[in-house]
Amino acid sequence: MRKLQHLFLSCLAGLLLSGLTIAAEVPLNPNHPDRYTVVKGDTLWDISSLFLQDPWRWSDIWYVNPQIANPHLIYPGDVLVLTYVNGQPRLSLQPGTLRLSPRVKSYPLDDAIPTIPISAIDPFLRKPLVVEDGELENLPYIVAFADEHMMGGAGQRMYVRNLDETESPKYHVVRKSGPYQDADTGEVLGFEALDIAETVIQRLGDPATALLLTTEQEVLTGDHLVKLNENPMTSFQPKAPDTEINGSIIDIIDGLVQAAQFNIVAIDKGNREGLKPGDVLTIMHKGETIKDQVTPDPSDTIKLPDEEAGLLMIFRTFDRVSFAIILRSTRAIHIFDRVVNPQ
After folding, report:
1. Residue 215 and residue 256: Cα distance in Å, rounded?
2. In the chain, where does DSSP find H-type helix?
3. Is the CA virtual torsion 286, 291, 294, 299 positive or negative?
4. pLDDT tens for each residue of 53-80
5. How far apart are CA 306 and CA 323, in angstroms?
6. Model-level pTM?
């Protein structure tokens, strides 16, 4: 976990840009403090929300003091001060910080605050979440279990075919599940890769021998092996997307009926539409279509307007599907709620 956190913190170098850059007027939170002392457990998103109405615009008001060691990182105990330059807000570390060079005082990178809660997305950074139609056919598959077992559980050995030699012996065991579909057109965008277990290869060959380490459910003959992603992307720069996005939430992970802050969702847009990890989208609760009970025409219907329900940040993209963490919710979030560029 600490290794992941160390990698994750590299995102701050891109997020907290050197110097002061004001592309447009940045709306402050009406209740913003003039200064804030960072405490353990803070995230960059939390702090940004204290000062800004739009937390992803942090880099627009952040001023980096080049005399401070690790100027792009923020640590517990740091004091952030809001000032104004030519009428524009500027956020910086309080002068006199103990991290001024050339003092010899080290701060472990793992102690710096992350952008968002790492634990919320960690399980989803390594899993093979989406597979294309036909993709599993070329992957290793389970052909049998040791000791004449019909299915496998943690601690059992199994036999695998179609396995190439690899430096990384750890794999996910996956099973193709239901399709992800575009909410508007019905286009099949890919299939859920149901994560069944983790396994390690003990002996190469045809078949190879593998040991099941952990299981979420019973492993079956015909289930496939996908390499464990040892180096997931963990560098995020929250920002508005570069392209116009008009999509929908098509799944709430872990089978939830509705979602709230820090839940994980899938949306029906991905690399094809220009989405990238770090992109922030507004969630719009889809307005219902109702009958107008006032007019005499019983067939007269009207669609109620969509209402803002929260914000999410993309953290993993596939060709036509992306996964996101909900960073703010003002009401319950449901499948088929819309996602659009933040205003």
Report:
1. 21
2. 2-8, 11-15, 44-51, 118-125
3. positive
4. 888 888 788 876 665 555 567 888 889 9
5. 22
6. 0.77
Domain with CATH 2.40.10.410 in the chain: 246-340
What CATH architecture does domain 246-340 belong to? Beta Barrel (2.40)
d(Cα 179, Cα 154) in Å, to the nearest integer?
A: 28
What is the largest distance, in Å, between two alpha-carbon atoms of the chain?
A: 80
Half-sphere exposure at residue 166, Cβ-oriented, CA atoms within 13 angstroms: 16
**193 three-state secondary structure:** strand
For residues 223 and 142, the answer to whether their CB atoms sit within 8 Å is yes
CB 199 within 8 A of CB 116: no
Would you call the peptide bond into 207 cis, given omega within 30 degrees of 0 as the criterion?
Answer: yes
DSSP string, 154-187: TT-EEEEESPPP-S--EEEEEEEEEEEE-TTT--
User: Which two three-digit tokens encode residue 160?
Assistant: 């695998």
pLDDT digits (tens, 9 = 90+) for 236-267: 778 899 999 999 999 999 888 899 999 999 99
Residue 88 pairs in a beta bridge with 85
